[in-house]
C-alpha cells in the first residue's frame, strides 16, 4: 500500500524524455498534466535556479489533480550565495511565490553546497526563522559536507523537525540514513551520483524494504529520482512504486 508514500522524479520538463515517457508530439505545456497521470508528486528544480512567477506556480497547481504535491527546491541564492546567512532578508521573496500554493506542497527542499560546513549558530538561526515565520511548511535538508554527519547537527534537525535528506549517490557525497522528523525525504542521484545511471532491481528492492519499514513506523516518505539521463528516473520510480503497491 502506498499510503503515506510519495514517489516521483526531480522535475518533469526533460526534452530527452520524449519517446521514453512523453509522446514526441506533446507540447511543453502538456508535460506536467501527462506526468501527473502516472505520478502524484514532483520536485520543482527550476526554483533553485530561477524563482518562478506566482502565475506560473498557480498554473502548475491548476494542471494537476487536487491531491498532487509539489516539493520546491529553495533558491540557490539562499543556500549557495548567502550560505544560509540573513534569512530574514532572503526567505520572503521565495515564500511570497509559494505561499499562493502552500497547501499543495510537500516538504521544501534545502540543498546545501558541498563547501558549506555545519556551524551551529548559523544553522540554528536559519532553522529558527523557518519555524517562526513559515510554520505552515515542512522542510528537508540535503547537506553535502561531512561535518553535518554528526550528533549535533542531527539533534538540531530533530529539534526543528526538519527532515534529513537521505541521498543515494554512491560515494559522490557523504550520506547517512538518519531519521530526524516525521517526514523522511529520499533523493536518488544515480548509483554513481552522476544522474545518468540506473539502479539495479536488487537495489530498488532494498529501498522498497526500507520504505515499507518506515511506513509501518508511521512516517511519511517522499522519494525522488534525480537520475534523469536516458529516462532512468522514470524507470526506477515506476519500479519502486510497483514494489510498494
Automatic annotation (TrEMBL):
SUPFAM superfamilies: TM1631-like. It comes from the Bacteria. InterPro entries: DUF72 (IPR002763), UPF0759_sf (IPR036520). PANTHER family: DUF72 DOMAIN-CONTAINING PROTEIN (PTHR30348:SF4), UNCHARACTERIZED PROTEIN YECE (PTHR30348). This is Uncharacterized conserved protein YecE, DUF72 family. It comes from Chitinophaga terrae.
Amino acid at each position: 500500500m502506498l499510503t503515506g508514500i510519495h514517489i516521483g522524479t526531480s522535475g518533469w520538463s526533460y526534452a530527452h524524455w520524449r519517446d521514453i515517457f512523453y509522446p514526441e508530439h506533446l507540447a511543453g505545456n502538456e508535460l506536467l498534466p501527462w506526468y501527473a497521470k502516472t505520478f502524484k508528486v514532483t520536485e520543482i528544480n527550476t526554483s533553485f535556479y530561477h524563482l518562478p512567477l506566482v502565475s506560473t506556480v498557480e498554473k502548475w497547481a491548476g494542471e494537476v489533480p487536487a491531491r498532487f504535491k509539489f516539493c520546491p527546491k529553495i533558491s540557490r541564492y539562499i543556500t549557495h550565495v548567502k550560505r544560509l546567512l540573513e534569512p530574514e532578508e532572503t526567505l520572503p521573496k521565495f515564500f511570497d511565490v509559494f505561499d499562493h500554493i502552500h497547501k499543495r506542497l510537500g516538504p521544501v527542499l534545502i540543498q546545501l553546497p558541498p563547501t558549506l560546513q555545519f556551524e551551529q549558530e548559523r544553522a540554528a538561526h536559519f532553522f529558527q526563522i523557518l519555524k517562526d515565520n513559515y510554520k505552515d511548511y515542512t522542510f528537508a535538508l540535503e547537506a553535502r559536507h561531512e561535518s553535518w554527519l554528526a550528533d549535533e547537527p542531527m539533534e538540531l534537525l530533530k529539534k526543528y523537525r526538519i527532515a534529513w535528506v537521505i541521498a543515494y549517490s554512491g560515494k559522490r557525497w557523504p550520506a547517512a540514513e538518519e531519521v530526524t522528523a516525521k517526514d523522511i525525504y529520499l533523493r536518488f542521484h544515480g548509483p554513481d551520483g552522476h544522474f545518468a545511471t540506473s539502479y539495479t532491481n536488487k537495489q530498488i528492492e532494498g529501498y522498497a524494504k526500507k520504505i515499507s519499514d518506515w511506513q509501518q513506523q508511521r512516517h511519511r516518505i517522499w522519494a525522488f529520482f534525480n537520475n534523469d539521463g536516458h529516462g532512468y528516473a522514470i524507470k526506477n520510480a515506476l519500479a519502486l512504486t510497483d514494489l510498494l503497491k
